[in-house]
Amino acid sequence: MKTIFEKSSGVDGINLTDKTTDVNFIPQNLLREGSIGLPQLSELETMRHYKELSDLNFCIEKGFYPLGSCTMKYNPKVNEFLSSLEGFNIHPNSDDNLAQGSLKLMYNLQKALLEVTGMDAITLQPSAGAHGEMTGMMIIKKYFDSIGENRTKVIIPDSAHGTNPASAKMAGFDVVEIKSNSKGQVDIEALKAVLDKDVAAIMMTNPNTLGIFEEGVKEISDLMHANGSLLYYDGANFNAIMGWTNPKLMGFDVVHLNLHKTFSTPHGGGGPGAGPVAVVERLKDYLPTPVVEFDGEKYYRNYNLQHTIGSVKDFYGNFSVLVRAYTYILMMGKNLKNASENAVLNANYLKEKLKKYYDLPYDEPCMHEFVLTGERQKHENGVSTLNIAKALMDGNTHPPTVYFPLIVHEAIMIEPTESESKEKLDEFVETMIQIAEESKTNPEKILSAPHTTPVKKIDEVTAARKPDLKYIN
């Protein structure tokens, strides 16, 4: 290691191992004295090792990935190529004069996201959907504090994403849950019953997590605003309405978007992600700083917002994700509307094909996703939703989201996205029908699934009660 540093020191004339060099001196105790201990493998052996690891995993490049509520659409490879261009690989502390290209991209992305949401101002800073939720709730909290109103409650439907109550609670609010009605939508009478001057906001997803559009959203908006309250739009399901309507038209005041869902950037494994938050005019001074602006000649980062909640992330968010999202928007253009249309078409096609074989708790026209239930299979033959999910893995399909939303017992939440062809959807239908039939005729096969995956069926009870945990130093 000394040799490497000594050789490199000749470039700028600084000897990094010389104790007289103040800033760049590396203490002796930090220099490695022995071998790094890496295995001695050829490039070919190393490549095969990582290929084998990859083969153990399932990804959208391998097969159908109908993960409800998570929009696992295809990520075009051009997104990856453009986000890796050398010109975008600049230090986040670079002066604005040296980052005009990157700032212009962010500014243009902001304009595009404001166009599709209908909102008036936006921040790209939050690094995930849940992070965007918390940012939005912090904005709402700061707004009411600044106008001298001590509002302590946030209303959340019982079908909401689990991060909604968590975000509201972390922002300092008490959570009030309201029930869904027989159509799987917000029960407006239940809303009226809890709406008082302590309510700061309602958090809604539209379409909701059942894949159903909230028909009463305008009435809900009028009720909330008449009460002096705000409306928060969870944009996790924006893939269903993009280009057809927007949260501003529905009466929402704060919106978060999942760029890593609606706009095709990589998703899963905890990141990377981006959760921009857009707001109406009266809330724009509450956004986290900096915000990217343009004075007609120069793009710059503005830190001077009167009521800002302050920064919510180091630097300015996950920039490479912003590049990917902007690339997707430029490629799609007005066809963003078609993406939503095809997602809704695909979901309704699957719903109609499968509702004969699985129970459909809410037989309503769906948007981009829908929820079945395995109650029939469990009641008749002891085959649970979890067993159905594992059996799907034998059919080269990633299991859908299961046991969510919580208001549906044995829930199977399916989102095909717009990426899949009719042939792939029909394959999925055939697999689901086969599982339903075998649940009757040969339930043991489904109960013992999966059979063809690298890891076969495990003893879940023992795994939960006696986990095999190791700490490796």
How many domains?
Answer: 3
Secondary-structure-derived class: alpha/beta
Query: Strand portion, in percent?
Result: 5-15%
Name of the CATH first level of the largest domain = Alpha Beta
Q: In which range does the helix fraction lie?
A: 25-40%
Measured on Cα atoms, how large is the radius of gyration?
Answer: 26 Å
Terminus-to-terminus distance = 23 Å
Helices and strands, in order, run as HHHHEHEHEHEHEHEHEEEHHEHHEEHHH
Low-confidence stretches: 1-5, 7-14
Count of extended strands: 12
What does this structure look like?
With 473 residues, the chain is an alpha/beta fold. The protein folds into three domains: 1-38, no CATH class; 80-334, Aspartate Aminotransferase, domain 2; 338-465, Aspartate Aminotransferase, domain 1, CATH 3.90.1150. The chain has helices at 2-8, 43-56, 77-83, 100-117, 129-146, 163-170, 188-194, 217-226, 247-250, 259-262, 319-332, 336-354, 375-381, 385-392, 422-441, 443-447, 460-465; strands at residues 121-123, 153-157, 174-178, 199-205, 230-235, 254-257, 277-279, 291-294, 299-302, 370-373, 401-402, 411-414. It has a seven-stranded mixed beta sheet, sandwiched between helices. The chain has a three-stranded antiparallel beta sheet with strand order 10-12-11, with helices on one face. Strand 4, helix 8 and strand 5 form a beta-alpha-beta unit. Helix 3 (77-83) packs across helix 11, helix 5 packs parallel to helix 6 and helix 12 runs parallel beside helix 15 (422-441). The relative contact order is 0.13. The model is unreliable at 1-5 and 7-14 (pLDDT under 50).
